[in-house]
Each structure stands twice: as structure tokens, then as C-alpha cells.
UniProtKB/TrEMBL annotation:
Keyword terms: Acyltransferase, Membrane, Transferase, Transmembrane, Transmembrane helix
Transmembrane segments: 50-71, 92-115, 140-159, 171-189, 195-218, 230-248, 254-272, 284-310, 316-335
Native organism: Actinokineospora bangkokensis
PANTHER family found in the cross-reference section: ACETYLTRANSFERASE, BLR2367 PROTEIN
InterPro entries: Acyl_transf_3_dom, Acyltransferase_3
Protein name: Acyltransferase
Sequence segments annotated as region (Disordered): 389-422
Boundaries of every Acyltransferase domain copy: 17-335
One BP annotation, GO: polysaccharide biosynthetic process
UniProt GO MF annotations: acyltransferase activity, transferring groups other than amino-acyl groups
Length: 422
């Protein structure tokens, strides 16, 4: 670990409040997808003892991600920051896509479900699922991953160019709320041309205001947004999100608003090290630490497990519990076997090896330049020496005019042949 990273950790110790919000967000997604989404995608999997229809967990994760982008992007080298972000995200995602695709291909004929194609696999690996109706999501919960990658790249491009200072960032944040709404209701209707739909959905313009909320909260903690400005912006972003869904899921928007208030409290207040939470802190931190892995494996693989359990006669409560446990266990495996090792190797081991290879190549080049020059034998000029050597022989007219291939003088023939070869 570098001294800069150590100093950053000393300045920003890990707060339990952030882990509480992460756990609330991720595991609400798990329960919502098991109890509400699975009977929609596969009607035979329901009903469950209760239904959690509120969809706010994934949006919460994007707001938290945007907030910490603003916190960390200004520290050190921006390219290194982007590399660390991508190496934390992509290896686990790519493995999860391949595993989910393979499992779905294996069980689809048995269950009569959609059979994903190799084209779907490639589209999901390159995160272009939303750009064409010919592509299908291997797991529909993966919609957050392309959005996060785009936000990381945008932050890495904009921050060094001064977009984090002055009035540029607040103007950009309001544009993230207003511009997508204008596009949605002027051009991106259900009857819009496909290229408009692909551009709007591929860039996730209906979700970009979520990153604006996270950035606005950071601006507020820096004293660059007043409390009133932050409140107005947050309400505007919530209304915009509800409008993108044509106000068909307002309860989810209200629930999301409550969680946004919790995020503001976590960012601007003291840590939630309350007596009631203190005994649970190790479990909360552990669940928060594997939350990304849980998110990657819970939905489609959970549907598959639920179908096997249903066919085996397991009841609704049993399916709910076992699918939740599977998400936690597989999430832990992904975190320990893929996410953490890949991130560590790509950010420490591989850069160190690459630096050693460059240093070795540089040292070798310098050593070769410092070697003493070996004197080369002096070679006489081909013109003068050859004429001097052959002039006695060329004084004989018949021999001088002779073709070297037919000349009877072996020395002259060899010399002329050598000259022609040059």
C-alpha cells in the first residue's frame, strides 16, 4: 500500500453508517427480486409469503457510488484512480456474466425459459445490452454496471479539466436532471425511431440524475451547496426519476427519497456508532464488504435455484430463505475468489512486474550503449582500389572488352561479377 493510500485511509476511516446503507440497499434488492420480480419473469415461481415491491436499492447504490467518486477522484493520479475503479468492478462482473450465461444455457431447455445466445454473451461482456433490441440481458440486474463504468470514465475525463471547480459542476448536475427529461418527452417516446431509443437507453439518460444526487451531496459537504440548494436538487431528481417511469411507481420513489435522506445524514453527520449497532458492526461490515458479489449473483441464479426448489416441493418460506442464503454464499465466493484477488493483482502485482520489466529493458539498453566500440577492418574504396588492381590487366584491349562471363581472365571475371552484384 502506498503512503498516499495510507494517508487517505487515515483521513477517511471507514464508517459503519455507509455499510448500513449498502447492506440495506443490496439486500432490499435481493428480497425485492425474489418476492416481486421472479413471479413477473417466471410466474410459476410465485407467490411468496410477502412481496417487497419497492425498487430503490440499485438507485441507492448509484448515488453512493457517485458520492465516493467525488471523494476519491481528486486524490492523486486520475488515470490510476480510474484503473483501480475498473479493476474492482470488471473482473468479478465478467466472471459472473460467463457463469450466469452457462447456467442459463444449461437449464433453459428444461424449464422452457429463454435460451441466451452467444450474441447475448458477447453483448453482456462488452456492456452494450441496452443498445439494441437484438441483445438480451443475461441478468437484468446488471443494468447498473454500464452506468457505473460510464460515470467513472466521465469523472476521469472531466475532473482534470476543471469540472470539479467553480460553477461548472453545479451547472452540469442540473443538466443531468433537465436534459434527459426534455429528451424523454420530446423525442424518446414508445414510438421513437430505434436509433433514438438505443442512444437514450444505451447512455442510461433516465438514470444519470442519480449520479447528480451523489455529486450534489458531496458539494454540500464541501460547503459549495447550501442545504436549501441540496434539498431542491434532490427533490427535482426524485421527481425526474418518477417522471421517467410516467409516475407509475411513486411509492418506490418515496422510499428512495427516504434513503437519500439517510445518505445525506451519513455524509454530513457523525458515524452511526450507536449502542444498538455496535454489537452488529462486524456482521454489517462483512455483509457490506461482499455486497457487490451478492449483487452480481442473486437474481438470475436465484431464479434458477427457486425453480429447482419448487420442483422439489420446497415451500415459499424455504425458497425465500434458501435463495437469500445462496446469494450471500455465492457473493462471498465471488468476493474472495475473484473480486479481491483480481483487484490486488491488477493494482499491485502486475504494475510492480511491469515496472521491473521496464527498468530491466532500460538498464539493458544503457549497458549496450556503454559497450566499447569494436574497430572495424578498413575496406578500400571499391572504385579506386579495383581500378588500381585491374589496370595492368585492362591494358589489353581484347581482354578489357571481353564479357566477364566469357573472359579468360579469372581475376577480371570475378571482380566484374562482384561489381555487378553490388
Amino acid at each position: 500500500m502506498t503512503s498516499t493510500e495510507t494517508a487517505n485511509q487515515a483521513r477517511s476511516p471507514r464508517k459503519i453508517s455507509w455499510d448500513v446503507i449498502r447492506v440495506l440497499a443490496v439486500y432490499s434488492v435481493v428480497v425485492q427480486h425474489i418476492t416481486h420480480q421472479s413471479p413477473i419473469n417466471h410466474p410459476e415461481l410465485g407467490p411468496y409469503p410477502f412481496v417487497l415491491p419497492l425498487q430503490f436499492g440499485a438507485s441507492t447504490l448509484l448515488v453512493i457510488s457517485a458520492y465516493f467518486v467525488c471523494v476519491t477522484v481528486r486524490r492523486g493520479n486520475t488515470r490510476q484512480w480510474l484503473w483501480k475503479k475498473l479493476t474492482r468492478l470488471l473482473p468479478a462482473y465478467l466472471v459472473a456474466v460467463v457463469v450466469t450465461y452457462a447456467v442459463s444455457r444449461a437449464v433453459a431447455p428444461m424449464f422452457g425459459w429463454y435460451l441466451p445466445t452467444p450474441t447475448d454473451l458477447v453483448a453482456n461482456l462488452f456492456m452494450v445490452q441496452a443498445w439494441s433490441p437484438d441483445f438480451h440481458w443475461v441478468d437484468a440486474s446488471y443494468w447498473t454496471l454500464p452506468v457505473q463504468v460510464m460515470s467513472f470514465v466521465a469523472a476521469a475525463l472531466l475532473w482534470p479539466r476543471g469540472w470539479g471547480r467553480g460553477a461548472k459542476l453545479p451547472v452540469l448536475l442540473w443538466g443531468l436532471v433537465i436534459a434527459p427529461l426534455v429528451i424523454r418527452f420530446l423525442w424518446r417516446g414508445d414510438d421513437a425511431q430505434q436509433w433514438v431509443i438505443s442512444l437514450f437507453d444505451g447512455l442510461a439518460l433516465h438514470r444519470v440524475a442519480l449520479f447528480g444526487v451523489g455529486a450534489a451531496i458531496w458539494l454540500w459537504t464541501q460547503g459549495r451547496f447550501s442545504g436549501r440548494h441540496l434539498a431542491v436538487y434532490a427533490v427535482a431528481a426524485l421527481v425526474a426519476q418518477d417522471a421517467h417511469a410516467y409516475f407509475a411507481d411513486t411509492p418506490s420513489t418515496i422510499a428512495f427519497g427516504v434513503v437519500v435522506a439517510l445518505i445525506i445524514a451519513a455524509a454530513g453527520g457523525r458515524d452511526w456508532d450507536f449502542p444498538v449497532l455496535r454489537p452488529l458492526a462486524p456482521v454489517i461490515r462483512w455483509l457490506g464488504g461482499i455486497s457487490f458479489g451478492v449483487y452480481l449473483v442473486h437474481q438470475e441464479l436465484g431464479f434458477v435455484l427457486a425453480r429447482f426448489l419448487l420442483d422439489a416441493g420446497v415451500g415459499a418460506w424455504g425458497r425465500l430463505v434458501l435463495c437469500s442464503v445462496m446469494a450471500v454464499l455465492l457473493g462471498w465466493v465471488v468476493t474472495k475468489a475473484v473480486e479481491n484477488p483480481a483487484h490486488r493483482w491488477l493494482t499491485t502485482v502486475w504494475p510492480a512486474r511491469w515496472a521491473r520489466l521496464k527498468a530491466t529493458a532500460r538498464a539493458t539498453g544503457e549497458a549496450l550503449r556503454d559497450l566499447p566500440q569494436v574497430p572495424q577492418p578498413q575496406v578500400a574504396s571499391s572504385g579506386a582500389s579495383l581500378r588500381a588492381e585491374l589496370s595492368p590487366r585492362m591494358s589489353h584491349g581484347s581482354t578489357a572488352a571481353a564479357d566477364p562471363r566469357t573472359s579468360t581472365d579469372p581475376v577480371l571475371a570475378a571482380a566484374m561479377a562482384k561489381s555487378q552484384l553490388r
